[in-house]
């Protein structure tokens, strides 16, 4: 089955802040039909501007021909999460995830406590017929002993409760092979993030190759300080083996969507996503419908 191509709305976050519905219209005009929200908690503005009921938001998306296929919820506030899940269920979104909200990892016990939380969130989602997924960056491939943080998460969370959204860019920037990880964890893979790395870059592709010590404690500030905007290219214009990734990911039984994500660009955000879309059309094994 071909993977459906969508977009993570973090790619147009500045445009959304300035003109929420005008930006969604431009996303739809570009030809995207599937969107993943970026930290829209549903109950407050979050700098995006969607102060609408779930029913109103669902109608607005439908009118634009857009479907929501996931949403990052950071932080995982257990007091507010039931209402957030209810909102997303009414919105028509059947899965929510989290990513950077628990850096730094501190120690193995801390990671294990987060695994307990992820299982609880997964159970809350399952009770509603929804799924919870975890999104990686490069920090998950630091090690405690012989195991990476990612391995600890995968071994200590319930596969029926905690799924994954692999970000192949950040896997590569951790010095890992995304094809091997897709194959290893394909049964839990429900969403795939695809960025691209430029042919000429101010940093080596591996973040642990002289940029950050692999044993260093990486908090959100250090992550932001070392995230070079010039290490991203419009998707399909760089050096990542995207066709190989698509071919490998198509074997994942629960994967339906590959989501384009542009963390940083020197272009206008709307121009950037249009360029990525045009370049992405050269790949096989995908569909825009």
TrEMBL record:
It holds the Pfam family AP_endonuc_2. Residues 24-238 form the Xylose isomerase-like TIM barrel domain. Keywords: Isomerase. The keyword Methyltransferase does not apply. InterPro entries: IolE/XylAMocC-like, Xyl_isomerase-like_sf, Xyl_isomerase-like_TIM-brl. This is Sugar phosphate isomerase. One of its GO terms (molecular function) is isomerase activity. It comes from Oceanobacillus neutriphilus.
